């Protein structure tokens, strides 16, 4: 199938809107499903998602609706842009109405606590007959709808699915790169959120460019080391869905994870910072799970441990920074195949 007749996007927030609008602008009949009926009607009527992406007109081919059957019943391709904490619940609603052989693509960058499960693994567990992929990369929703040139990654073992999604979404401002390492692409997208919080925090404290460059590079090393312990391929992190997304979210206050780090440095509580941002901040939960997993597997992750200390163990930021810079050097080796 190279030319899908109907596309569905689940999620009425920032990224759901951005992806639905690309598919619709490319001429595909696209349904964007959101759980709130009034909000769906408002988006449909105003041709704008004024709560999440105000000021951007949406394509006429996009239908916003709150009826899952209407959105998904005839869809050939379904994208899911629902925060990880509700991802399984929505997938379970989807399961009984999905056509056999439908392509289902997760765009969610998070991890489920039970079993350290990534979202495409949730899809595997819940959907019997779907073809599964992951879309991930340095992709702020706001810049996508503003038609800034953007690159992303479509990852799947299914080559036909990759070609279909490339054709479906590619435009003069959106380009999709193929990757067969679905797990690595998905893991990179989840892990980078931890380090966006770290650099947001460091930037708000006044750290200079030297410090940010060190943090970014050591974050990548830490991500690679963690991947290797999970038998994933750390080389995948050298692509758009790894280092690309790490650079993006660690250097811009368009990132909600980065903004959360800034708010913590400015003295806000975690709860207050999350409430003020008011949208998905996946890095907080990911940090909890990654710290637990790293401890279990004995993976050296000083930056993730330091952030965990600040957010969940009442450590002072100053003490943590001193400890990071003044600690024993015997674990501090540069990134290489041998040293990961
Ligand atoms: N915003 C971006 O730039 C961006 C880019 C790439 C990937 N992502 C990822 O996409 C995922 C979604 O992010 P977002 O930015 O769209 O978040 P968001 O907070 O902007 O929107 C989330 C949407 O999901 C809906 N939702 C939450 N629980 C639901 C449930 N149980 N049933 C139905 N709908 C529910 C919310 O009502 C909201 O409309 C996250 O994992 C994020 O990391 C976001
Ligand atoms: O706003 P954030 O921090 O969730 O980042 C959004 C995307 O993941 C950027 O690629």
TrEMBL record:
Record bears the keyword Transmembrane: no
Residue intervals of the Glycerol-3-phosphate dehydrogenase NAD-dependent N-terminal domain: 6-161
GO molecular function: glycerol-3-phosphate dehydrogenase [NAD(P)+] activity; NAD binding
UniProt record, GO biological process: carbohydrate metabolic process; glycerol-3-phosphate biosynthetic process; glycerol-3-phosphate catabolic process; glycerophospholipid biosynthetic process
Enzyme class: oxidoreductase
Protein's pathway: Membrane lipid metabolism; glycerophospholipid metabolism
Keyword Nucleus: no
Swiss-Prot/TrEMBL catalytic activity: sn-glycerol 3-phosphate + NADP(+) = dihydroxyacetone phosphate + NADPH + H(+); sn-glycerol 3-phosphate + NAD(+) = dihydroxyacetone phosphate + NADH + H(+)
Entry keywords, A to Z: Cytoplasm, Lipid biosynthesis, Lipid metabolism, NAD, NADP, Nucleotide-binding, Oxidoreductase, Phospholipid biosynthesis, Phospholipid metabolism
Cited Pfam families: NAD_Gly3P_dh_C (PF07479), NAD_Gly3P_dh_N (PF01210)
Cell compartments where the protein resides: Cytoplasm
Catalytic residues as annotated in Swiss-Prot or TrEMBL: 192 (proton acceptor)
Major localization listed first in the record, in broad terms: cytoplasm
Binding site for NAD(+): 11-16, 141, 256
Glycerol-3-phosphate dehydrogenase NAD-dependent C-terminal domain ranges (all copies): 181-320
Chain positions recorded as substrate binding sites: 109, 256-257
GO cellular component terms, A-Z: cytosol
Residues given in the record as NADPH binding sites: 14-15, 35, 52, 109, 141, 256, 282
Chain residues that bind sn-glycerol 3-phosphate: 109, 137, 192, 245, 255-257
HAMAP family (alphabetical): NAD_Glyc3P_dehydrog
PANTHER family: GLYCEROL-3-PHOSPHATE DEHYDROGENASE, GLYCEROL-3-PHOSPHATE DEHYDROGENASE [NAD(+)] 2, CHLOROPLASTIC
Record's function text: Catalyzes the reduction of the glycolytic intermediate dihydroxyacetone phosphate (DHAP) to sn-glycerol 3-phosphate (G3P), the key precursor for phospholipid synthesis.
Protein family membership: Belongs to the NAD-dependent glycerol-3-phosphate dehydrogenase family.
Protein's name in the database: Glycerol-3-phosphate dehydrogenase [NAD(P)+]
Gene this protein is translated from: gpsA
